[in-house]
Design goal:
The chain has about 210 residues and is an alpha+beta fold. It is about 30% helix and about 25% strand. Strand 10 (about 195-200) and strand 11 form a beta hairpin.
């Protein structure tokens, strides 16, 4: 069965551009993004990996490690890294898994045979410090992902893991949030002493709690 939100992210040991990695040990106590791309030396993937490398500091700030995967061998990953640096202006600065035997792709259901028998789709898994899956996304090979959106979702996941709030449509860091419906008004008085605005009894808006 496909992995679902709340499931434990399957552990594995794999060869990467930065040596052998035991996934759970590599995650440590922080957050992680595991993503697949269809193939090395392809145009959209080249832009994606350049952009992710450019954003490394943003992931670091959020205590999130990033690791990529395709079913290509590690020598290809290393040769392709030169093209990424040359064409995107940012050197690859996170590990890429060489999943030639499709072990990890199979564990995470990253090959969708009706899309392609030979390549992984563009999967993204965000994994929390408890090693549980917090978010999954699947994009087709033809569509590059928006990694600013991934950072936005991570901000929401990290905030809502800590506070009894949810984030509304198009929310961005610093904007007002919503008190979750399971919190009564009586409890909300303790949790949000600065007060909130009730638009409907189920729609209570509060400034974003400070971390
Ligand atoms: C790409 O990254 O450009 C790509 C990869 C596989 C199929 C189509 C496009």
């Amino acid at each position: 069965m496909a992995l679902q939100l709340g499931d434990e992210a399957p552990n594995f040991t794999a060869e990467t551009t930065e040596g052998s990695v035991n996934f759970h040990e590599w995650i440590g106590n922080g957050w992680a993004v595991l993503f697949s791309h269809p193939k090395d030396f392809t145009p959209v993937c080249t832009t994606e990996l350049g952009r992710l490398s450019a954003l490394k500091g943003e992931f670091d700030k959020r205590n999130v490690k990033v690791i990529g995967l395709s079913v290509d061998p590690v020598d290809d990953h290393r040769r392709w890294a030169g093209d990424i640096k040359e064409t995107q202006g940012h050197a690859l600065n996170f590990p890429l898994i060489a999943d030639s035997d499709r072990k990890v792709a199979t564990l995470y259901n990253m090959i969708h045979p009706n899309a392609s028998d030979t390549m992984t789709v563009r999967s993204v898994f965000v994994i929390g410090p408890d090693k549980k899956i917090k978010l999954s996304l699947t994009y087709p090979a033809s569509t590059g992902r928006n990694f600013d959106e991934l950072l936005r979702v991570i901000d929401s996941l990290q905030l809502t893991a800590k506070h009894k709030v949810a984030t509304p449509v198009d929310w961005k860091q610093g904007q007002d949030v919503i008190i979750v419906p399971s919190v009564s008004d009586a409890d909300a008085k303790n949790l949000f002493p600065g007060g909130w605005k009730t638009i409907k009894p189920y729609l209570r808006v509060v400034p974003q709690p400070k971390s």
